[in-house]
Structure formats: C-alpha cells, structure tokens
Amino acid sequence: MEPVSLPPLSRVAICGGTHGNEMSGVYMVREMQKQKVHRTESVSITTVLSNPRAVDACRRYMETDLNRCFTDALLSAPITDSTPYELRRARELNAQLGPKGSPEAVDLLCDLHNTTANMGVCLIFYSLDWITLHIYNYIQSKMTSAPVRAIQMDLPISEAYSLESVGKHGIAIEVGPQPTGVTRADIFNMMKEAVDLTLEWLQKLNSGSTFEGGEVEAYTLVKSVDYPRDPTTNDITAAIHPQLQDNDFKLLKPGDPIFLSFSGETVKHEGEELYPLFVNECAYYEKKIAFHLAKKVTLTFPSISVRKED
Amino acid sequence: MSSSSCNNSACLNEARRVAIFGGTHGNEMSGVTLVNLWVKNSAEIQRKGVETKPFITNPKAVEKCTRYVDTDLNRAFTPENLSAPGGDNLPYEVQRAQEINRIFGPKESPDAYDVIFDLHNTTSNMGCTLILESSKDHFNLQMMHYIKKAIAPASCLVLLNEHPLLKYSTSRSVAKHPVGLEVGPQPQGVLRSNIFEAMRVILKHALDFIELFNEGMEFPPCTVEAFRVLERIDYPRDANGNIIAMVHPNLQDCDWEPLNPGDPMFQTFDGKTIRYHGSGTVYPTFINEAAYYEKQQAFVTTRREALVASAIRKI
Questions:
Q1: Residue B287 domain-assigned (yes or no)
Q2: Residue A258 has pLDDT above 50, yes or no
Q3: CA of A294, closest CA in chain B: separation in Å?
Q4: Cβ–Cβ of A185/B249 closer than 8 Å?
Q5: Which residues of A touch B240 (CB under 8 A)?
Q6: What is the ipTM of this complex?
Q7: Type and span of the H or E element at B140
Q8: How many domains, in total, are found in chain A?
Q9: Are the Cβ atoms of A179 and B37 closer than 8 angstroms?
Q10: pTM of the predicted model, to two decimals?
Q11: Which residues does UniProt mark as catalytic (chain B) (predicted)?
Q12: Exposed, middle or buried: residue A223 (CB in 10 Å: 0-12, 13-18, 19+)?
C-alpha cells in the first residue's frame, strides 16, 4: 500500500462519563482535569465529562442513552420542551467537540467506557481509518497488562450514533470486566495505559515519526442474540451458560452451550462459527441483547507520517 | 419464640412460617430471579410442615432495576420508621417497611415469622456468605453449620454483624431468626448463572435443615467459624469529600484473606500506594461493593471467631 502522509493531529478530546456509572472514564477525566492536563508538546487536550447529571446520579443515563444520540438526524432534529436531557447534551457536545463532519471538529475523539463483559481492552471505531488502525496497532504492540482487540462498526458516519463519531477520527476505549458504579484499580490502570499510549502515538506522529503499515485483526458485528424469554410475560427464562460466561472473543461453534435455563436445560448455538462479544453486558438487558456475534477480519493499513509543511 | 433448656439442649418451637425475600435491592438479580421463579412455581421450596413464602420486598426498585427508589429498604426497619405516621407521604421504602412488618411481623412480637432468608448479591468477591445478626441465635448457628457441612468442599462463610454502631435494621430483622444470604461477585443488573445456582443450592440446604428440625431431629452442640465485623474503612477523600484513591490491586478480590499492617490498601489515581496501618491482622470483606461508595465504605474489617452453638431440638 502507498504510504500516507497527513497534517499533524493537534486537537484531541478525552471524554468520560458518557455513561454515568462507567467509572474508569469518570475518574480518568477528573484526574486529568485535576492534574491540569491540557496538552503535550504538539497536542492540545480537551477533557470532558460527557453526561454530568448521570455521573452525579451514578446512572447510565437520565432519560435516554447519550451514546445513541449522535446520528446526523438526531443532531439536527428540532429541540422542543419535551426534548430529553441527553439529546440536548448531545447538541452541546457536538458544538464543543464538532460539529460532526466539519473542519472544526477535534482531530481525535477518545470516549472512555467500561463493560461488565470480560472484554479486556477493546477499541471500537467506525469506518476504515488509518489513524484509528495505527493507534490500535500501537496500543496492542505495547500493552502487556491485558489483551487488546478492536471492533469495527460497519455504519456510514451519518448513521454513526455514538460520541466518538463527532471527531474527525474517533475511538471508543472499552475496558472490562467492571461492575457499574465500581472503580477497579486494575481496570483503571489499563484504561490509563491505553489513553497514555494514544497520546504518546499522536505526539510521535506529530514529531515526524513514520509508523510502518501492516495488518491487524479486528471484529465486525454480524448479529445479536437475545435471552430466551417466556412468550406470555416476556421474562427472561435462562442465564448465559457458564461455559460462555466470561469467554468473550472465544470462537463459538455450533453445538456449544450458550444459555442454561432456570429449569436446567442447555440451549446451544446454531449456525455459523462466530465470536461472541459483550457477553452479559448489564446495559444490554433492556436492549434485548445477551451477546453480540462477530466475525474476524484482517485489516491492512499503510505506513503513515505527518506531511511536512514548509 | 419461647425456649427452654432441657437436658442441655435448647428447646425451640418448630419453624412453621418461613419467608424468602428477593429484590430488597432491586438490582441484585439472583434473588429477584429466584423469588419470581418460586412465586410462579413453589414446588422446589416446599417442605413438609413448613409454609414457605417467596416475596419481592421492593417491587418498584425491581421494576426500575435500581437499588432503591427513595431510601435503602435494607436500612429502613428502624423502630422510628416502623411506627411513623404519614402514610402515602412517607418515602416509598418506609411505606414498604411498614407493610412488610404487618405481613411478616410485627418485629419482636410472638406473631413474627420464624425465619426470613433475605437474598442479596454483592460486587465484592465474597463467594457465598451467610449473615448472622446475633451470636446467641443457636437456631441460626446450627442452620449455618448444617449448610456449611452440606455444601463442602464448596465454601460458605459466616459474617457476624453484631456491632452496636455498624449493625443496621434489615428487612429480615422482622423475623425471629433473620438470615442474610449474600453471594458475589456479581455486577448490579447482571444475572450470572453460577452465582444464581450457588444461591439456589444454599437455600435448598437451609430448607432441608428446617424440615429436619421440625421433624424432631436433634442437632448436637457445634462450633461455627465466623468473621465478626470490627470497623468500616472509607476511601481516602480530599477536602471536598471526593474519593482520591481506589482499592489497591493487591487487596481487590481478596475478601476474607488476612490484611496485615503495612500491606497495600489503596492506590491513588496518580499511582501512589496507601498502606494499612492498623494494630494487627484483620480479615477484610465487602471489598469494593458498588453500593457502599455512598455509605462511605471501601471495605469492612473482621476478626475470626469460633461461635459455639448449643444443641437444639424442637419442643
């Protein structure tokens, strides 16, 4: 692949508390604000607590999930008296860090999340983007404290609904497992390491380093699976099977157990071999998702360096 | 419950009325799920000579999948709350406490239920824990001894909270013999199969014990290893009350393991270690329980104690 050169990436936003009970990002942003982390040599850093009311209440959201409010349609819909808090907040964030799709948007938006699923460090991004692939490659090559994986969301930017889509380049850093409302030091340390490595990479890029191209493996979502439910009450009738629980990213084959019903029956996986992720994520019960299934893809990326402006 | 000593055994009335509470905290899913299951089909919890009532104590909190709506139900059973006038103007959980006291109590009266099992989950790595409110409840001590033996080699530990300042007015305290069952680690709002099944098995043995007791089985004196609550340790905070450190990685998940003076206890957000400087070794538990951040508790310390239970049989 032809090497790519681009202008320096000088503006970064680090966002935490997009879900108010995902604590690593909340404390990460607070700590960065306390230490007055505004910039490295070549990068100016904006830190934002995305959903302050939800953070105060230690809830995922107050009225509606903030991290589903960033589609082009939702960002441009008219505001009325009944517009939920999070939709208003999404506008504010879009104005501050975007506008999405415009030249004023921050170069990189990094959104910090936790999951109750055993996903280690997982980077999530939209579209094939050399920046995010290089950051992923860099973090994966340097981090030893946890497995580092990536999920590529297959959606055009206009339909992209999450906060990181507001930046010119966006990456969500998802670290788990951690219960909501809890701050685990090991998880916080992983999150901090991932953020530090991201800023380090940007700094190196801006200073003239060339990063060699290569290949990385990532996952793309194929479908999601709901819990078995009682047809009359819609109540869940089974739990994630102990052999699937905590086995995110472990290939699921037809016949492998996926649910254990409360009356003792095993439900098995049918269909193609796929990789489960977000297994037993607490916020997804209401979205009717027990786990997602993904396929593995290999993504190739070119070498990259900053375009020298004379 | 009247008791008398006959030939060195404590003679107690049969335990005829038993309740199983789920959803005292609406986001602790094992209890919610088990009780809902048993409300629909109670075959599994039936025992000869016992009326066992499964009951969701905080339905509004369960519906919202939140710990509580106005105030923590599991702290609400104080004498003041139970006798407070005001009806509908009272906080939801105080109203619920009064209702529960009417159905299953009155607390400290002869009409109260014999046994109440209150099902809880914790984000702490406590495994299966039985919570005892009095070291002199020989019936409960014998039950816990029975359960521990029945599930061996799997473990079930006993936490005794008799501390005059730290003990609190639980939903189960309405009964003559309150039994707390805490199983973790499990995130709030999540149902883990292994945690659910562990709780289910413990209840099975508990009900078996009650049935055996009611049939006339005598339980000889025994010793129960327990952990007695000593003190609550809060997170380090700054002048504004903000938390400035996390449970240290060396302490995280180490419930019930010895914490010695000098051992790491907290890690600040900028990476410094804060060590434990108590006068002796303690056994911490409820380490990093999500719900206790607002109660100023990072963990509680305990000491190990052998509790002696006298022999018991029914009158």
A1: yes
A2: yes
A3: 22
A4: yes
A5: none
A6: 0.95
A7: helix B138-151
A8: 1
A9: no
A10: 0.96
A11: 182 (proton donor/acceptor)
A12: exposed
